[in-house]
Amino acid sequence: MKVTLKSIAKETGYSMSTVSRVLNGSSKYSENTRVAIFDAARTLKYEGIRLRPSDHPKKHLNIVLLADFYEGEFYASYFSGYVKATASQNIRLSLISIKNQYEMISEVIGQRSDRYYDAAILFAPKLDRDDYLTILDELPDNFPVISNALIETPVLQTITFDGYSGGHLAAKYFQKKGYKNLGIVKGPAQRPESRFRYNGFTDYVSSQSDLKLVFEVNGDFNFESGVDAFMEFQQCKVKPEAIFVANDLMCHGFLETASHCGVKIPEDIALLGYDDLPMCTHSNPKISSVKTDFENLASASIAALKQRIQHTDTATGMLSLIPVTISERETS
Q1: Which of 156, 191, 215, 315 could pair covalently with 240 via S-S, beta carbons 3.0-4.6 A apart?
Q2: Domains (ranges, CATH) in the chain?
Q3: Kindly report the CA angle at 118 between 115 and 124, in degrees rounded to 5?
């Protein structure tokens, strides 16, 4: 039997005139009405008109998460935060790994935004200001994008963790625990988040007469640089009592090497990491860490995207910082 407008009207309970107007693109009806009619047309396989993706009302907000993903707990925790934040919302979250810097970002957003995505979240910490300017210039008009990666002068609206306060909290925490001679294992100098964590830590230390920075070593956020940091610690003449390690993976490398060499944690040296990843509770001893709440980050980013969708004139260079806290465990 041929499916007609009358068939769809009978299926949905709406009049034939309403069905006809909705299927022909009228936007004066409510989204619930449009969804019901288009769903019935698809179910009944109505062929009277071609149902284009742009004509069909969207039940979900389609968001693409673009990130330069690498193997490890950080990226798993980052994405998991978004999964949790969107679980109770009408949001479809797509994940695309980007390896070709801003060229791939512009291509993905530019070619697919009209048909597939309503908004994008970008996490590409290795990009610099010029890269972001290029991306912003090539974005489709009125297509909202939020960045979760920090640069000193944001170009896109940016929501990220308060790394400066994280370093500040780490130094203050050590002081409260009674440690005087402190150290730090830094992240890569070219990464703004590394500099913010370092500046927060050293600013607090230099402002306190009872604290002294006696150990400082460069790292690159991987396990091996934590191993190398311990080797440098072994060689220093004035050893720190406590070390702030700028991410958990380096802290884990330092801890494992120290244990292998017979150095007791925290009796010989106290450690505090950054990010509070699952590895912190799986290690022995358990790692104290600056806690970054990825679900909180994701919720704030989703809320900002919705605000931008509703108000397209929102300023693009805004920076919002998500608070961090200390998770105290055995290494400190």
Answers
A1: 215
A2: 1-59 (1.10.260.40), 61-161+295-323 (3.40.50.2300), 163-291 (3.40.50.2300)
A3: 110
